[in-house]
Design brief:
Blueprint lengths: L4 E7 L3 E8 L5 E8 L22 E2 L2 H18 L6 E8 L4 E4 L20 E2 L7 H13 L17 H11 L1 H6 L2 E4 H10 L4 E2 H7 L11 H7 L6 H6 L3 E2 L4 E4 L2 H7 L6 E3 L2 E2 H9 L6 E6 L3 E7 L4 E2 L2 E2 L11 E7 L3 H10 L3 H10 L3 H9 L10 E3 L17 E3 L7 H25 L6 E5 L1 H5 L1 H11 L2 E5 L4 H14 L9 H8 L2 E6 L3 H20 L7 H9 L1
Parallel strand pairs: 1-5, 5-13, 9-10, 14-21, 21-22
Antiparallel strand pairs: 1-2, 2-3, 4-7, 6-8, 11-12, 14-15, 15-18, 16-17, 19-20, 22-23
């Protein structure tokens, strides 16, 4: 048969990329990346208006369209394949990342009367300004006896859709009322590409408290939360839902011309960026766990049953792979935390020595830390530099470093920070096992998994599992391409199931990290100490971190 191709788009926190992929074997023929011009706006708006708090994280939606137009056009040109042989396009996006739009699907922040209004802009996934609203929602659900329903997961994170929407309704009701829709950014893009109004079941199920059986939260609950939100589902969200591998619609002529593609090809339903990494890294069996290790990290494992507890959620069935729920959790800071240390706390002498070696500071510190034995530095850390997802789901919690002395060295702290992220990951793995996941192998992806063998070995020792590494450093983009191939279907040159697409398009490297029994024994003791610290700073028992957060505010 004549070769067919698909395009996958991956929208991250600071940039977006596109890949052109061969449907037959997953070969990436061309890729392109573009940074967002406005990056993350955490202090001021484009016009210079100062944001009213320390926990804001906004973006400018035109940046997403610029990425779309430039990167797709580039890979089509670089790939040198006939546009008629490109049979589908799919995209993933950081989530929950929302924006209010008007009846023409134009962002409200583009209108003159809203240019200086922060709530009219995109609220990025890591916008924690809605923490008070998240607490309010949790309290109401507890009062109603519903907080432990699978739809809500035991505690509401400020990163979800409803707290962000409630913040708009409470602090800028004029923005809420002006919005025709409040959309996930991934849904906004697929709607722009297709001219339709479908939404992703993956985004809705994991971030907007939607299930196939019950839909969104009830009108009675929403009205009790805020009278303005009583009709939120019907008026601002919508119930036309597409699940993983299904098409949101077909590409319009306008966008086909802009991208250099054929009109009418399917546009796959958007998916959360980390979730796209599951098929992109080759995870398709219930004995595997996907682990993305980058600026933050995400863990996903398949389950036949739904589950929601202590920050672990399972979303909705069929939202990632047909036939399964997918257990999800993660760490809010991994690479970001290492970056903080290198940029702000590593000694100048380390930077000088790294420069003399011709290495960057991360590589230098990793090599020095590799010579240390587990626990020999007498340090342990809590990995909450950007809040805690599991087990407390609280963006106000902060990091801790215990055991420092006047002899503590930079590489010892660096290793302690790596170990802290491994312990945080084990805490999540323990909960996955409580949810009856039988995980034997971990498949890792992300920039750190590719670049830092010390971290990967520490993870294998702490988690006591073999860890394999995806063969591509673009797993999310490849996963989006996998979904595009399924939306296109076998008749067009793609696949009829996600499983078939994964088995042909996703591959692993030969390298395997295996637990070192000597280190594993020592890490069990250290993990016990870490767990004691986690209990010590339980926000229900100690308000130390909360009080510090209020002082910072």
């Amino acid at each position: 048969m004549k070769k067919k191709y698909v395009i996958g788009l991956d929208y991250g926190t600071l940039s977006g990329r596109a890949v052109l992929v061969d449907c037959a074997d997953g070969t990436i023929l061309a890729s392109a990346v573009k940074n967002y011009e406005h990056a993350v706006m955490d202090r001021s708006l484009p016009g210079g208006e100062i944001l009213p708090g320390a926990d804001w994280a906004l973006q400018y939606p035109q940046d997403y369209l610029d990425v779309l137009a430039e990167t797709v056009h580039t890979v089509v040109q670089k790939g040198s394949v006939p546009k008629e042989d490109i049979i589908g396009i799919g995209l993933d996006f950081t989530s929950c990342t929302i924006l209010p739009v008007d009846e023409k699907n134009e962002p409200l922040c583009e209108q003159e009367q809203f240019r200086g209004e922060p709530h009219a802009y995109v609220k990025l996934w890591k916008h924690h300004g809605a923490q008070p609203q998240a607490d309010q929602i949790s309290a109401l659900l507890e009062k109603r006896g519903e907080i432990n329903n699978i739809q809500y997961g035991g505690k509401i994170s400020s990163e979800l859709l409803l707290p962000k929407v409630l913040q708009i309704a409470e602090e800028a009701p004029h923005v809420y009322e002006a919005a025709d829709q409040i959309l996930e950014a991934g849904d906004w893009l697929t709607q722009r590409l297709t001219g339709g109004r479908k939404r992703s079941g993956n985004l809705a199920g994991y971030k907007a408290m939607w299930t196939e059986e019950t839909g969104y939260p009830s009108k009675a609950f929403l009205k009790e939360l805020s009278p303005l939100l009583e009709n939120l589902a019907e008026e601002k969200l919508g119930s036309d839902i597409a699940l993983a591998g299904e098409a949101s619609g077909t590409l319009t002529q306008e966008w086909a011309d802009r991208l250099g593609l054929a009109a009418g090809i399917p546009v796959a339903a958007a998916i959360i960026d980390s979730h796209a990494g599951m098929p992109g890294s080759g995870v398709s069996r219930p004995d595997q766990m996907m682990m993305v290790v980058g600026t933050s990290s995400v863990m996903l494992a398949l389950s036949e049953d739904g589950y929601a507890k202590n920050g672990v959620v399972s979303g909705v069935k069929n939202a990632i792979l047909p036939g399964y729920f997918a257990l999800e959790s993660g760490l809010a800071a991994v690479g970001d935390m290492f970056g903080w240390f290198v940029d702000n706390a590593a000694a100048q002498s380390c930077a000088k020595q790294a420069e003399e070696m011709g290495a960057n500071l991360h590589t230098y510190l990793s090599e020095k830390a590799a010579g240390l034995k587990p626990g020999a530095n007498g340090l342990i850390a809590l990995d909450w530099w950007n809040g805690n997802k599991t087990p407390y789901v609280d963006g106000r919690l902060s990091g801790a470093l215990i055991g420092c002395t006047l002899t503590t060295k930079p590489e010892e702290i660096y290793r302690a920070l790596i170990e802290a992220t491994a312990f945080g990951t084990k805490k999540i793995l323990d909960l996955f096992e409580e949810a009856h996941a039988d995980i034997k192998t971990i498949i890792a992806s992300g920039g750190i998994a590719e670049k830092n063998p010390l971290l990967m070995q520490i993870y294998a020792d702490v988690l006591e599992r073999e860890i394999m590494v995806s063969d591509t450093d673009q797993t999310a983009a490849l996963g989006s391409a996998v979904y595009a191939s399924v939306a296109a279907g076998a008749a067009a040159g793609g696949y009829d199931t996600v499983g078939e697409a994964v088995s042909n398009m996703s591959h692993l490297k030969d390298i395997v990290y295996r637990p070192n029994p000597e280190n594993t024994e020592r890490y069990r003791e250290l993990y016990g100490i870490y767990s004691e610290l986690v209990e010590l700073f339980d926000p229900k028992k100690s308000d130390v971190m909360g009080r510090l957060h209020r002082l910072r505010q």
